[in-house]
Amino acid sequence: MKKGLLITRWLDTVSIQGILCSLMTAGLMTISSLAQAQTASTFPTKPIKIVVGFAPGGGSDFIARIVAQKLTQQLGQTVFVENRPGAGGNLGAEIALKAPGDGYTLFLAATSYTVNANLYKLSFDPLKDITPIARLASGPFIIATNPNLPIPNLKALVDLAKKEPGKLGYASAGSGSITHVATEYFLTTADIDVLHVPYKGTSPALTDTISGQVQFIFGTVASTLPHVQSGKLNALAVTTAQRLEALPKVPTVMESGYPNFDVSVWHGLIGPKGIPSDIVLKINEAVRTALNDPLMAQQLASDGLTASSDSPEEFGALIAQEVSRWGALVKARGITLK
Questions:
Q1: In a structure prediction context, what are the per-residue pLDDT tens digits for the chain, which is 338 residues long?
Q2: Strands 141-145 and 79-83
Q3: Beta strand spans in 184-292 (E)
Q4: Which domains does the chain have, with CATH numbers?
């Protein structure tokens, strides 16, 4: 009898312990959920890092730093830039996209990110492993030639290339660079055969275009506009649908006879997958507010860029569209990194 009573009491004790464990587990889950909710509502509670996949001083670094300064003001926490150059920007992307998806590590993606997705063997999925946050700005390439060449406009360049296939040359910042791929896209559109001359960077490519060693270049506004304004280069067209405010008399490629041609150089913020949607929206709204600042617009305009107002969904759609477009071109033209 006493033995049965002991067993009953033991079972009662076990049951009570089980109930207590269940209550504690439920309580911990509730606390965890509340902590997550508080994290989302009070974000950020510590500094935010923007990883840039290129060295300091370039166009990507310029945009990242002015945006970081504005976001620091908007979010009330320090937003700083960390440069991790290498592998065409892929090293920085890998570091950023393998960080926790909490919104505290972001990556400054550029157009080249969507090109690299089709040229490099990556350790991450460029679409599935990201959280799109906000496009920051975009601008055109300037198609420019040496002013001593008898090429007054884009039509004349195409006509000459068709008359002498394979004899004209264009400079790029390197095989697989966005300047290389964007130019090949135009060659496909115009159906012309032109020799590709890759360089190790934009500066030597511009130097040889200015000297006449090569006939033309697709250059970014920041690097090319000063040479156009000084008369060292002749601007034939810009590659976006809208003309460049700094060169109002220079037509677009669309206006020059290719109505479906629209290529821009863009930059935006992405993060690792899994960032909570409310944190994404908070950063996106802070970016939009920052970009609406007239001083910010002026700073971007100095680099030939126009502020964007994309939602995270719109920016994600752009990234997917660009990965697809450049992938088709890379395959059709047989573009490689060599």
A1: 444 444 444 444 444 454 444 444 444 444 334 444 436 688 999 999 999 999 898 889 999 999 999 999 999 999 999 999 999 899 999 999 999 999 999 999 999 999 999 999 999 999 999 999 999 999 999 999 999 988 999 999 999 999 999 999 999 999 999 999 999 999 999 999 999 999 998 999 999 999 999 999 999 998 999 999 999 999 999 999 999 989 999 999 999 999 999 999 999 999 999 999 999 999 999 999 999 999 888 888 877 889 998 999 999 999 999 999 999 999 999 999 98
A2: unpaired
A3: 195-198, 216-220, 234-238, 265-272
A4: 48-139+264-333 (3.40.190.150), 141-238 (3.40.190.10)
Q: Which residues of 226-244 are buried (b: 16+ CB within 10 A; e: fewer)?
A: ebbeeebbbbbbbbbeebb
Distances (CA, A) of 230 to 51, 140, 158, 224: 34, 19, 25, 10
Q: Retrieve residue 322's tokens.
A: 């660009």
Tokens of 261: 């041609």
pTM for this model (two decimals): 0.85
Instruction: Provide the sign of the torsion angle of the four alpha carbons 334, 137, 67, 130, taken in this order.
Output: negative
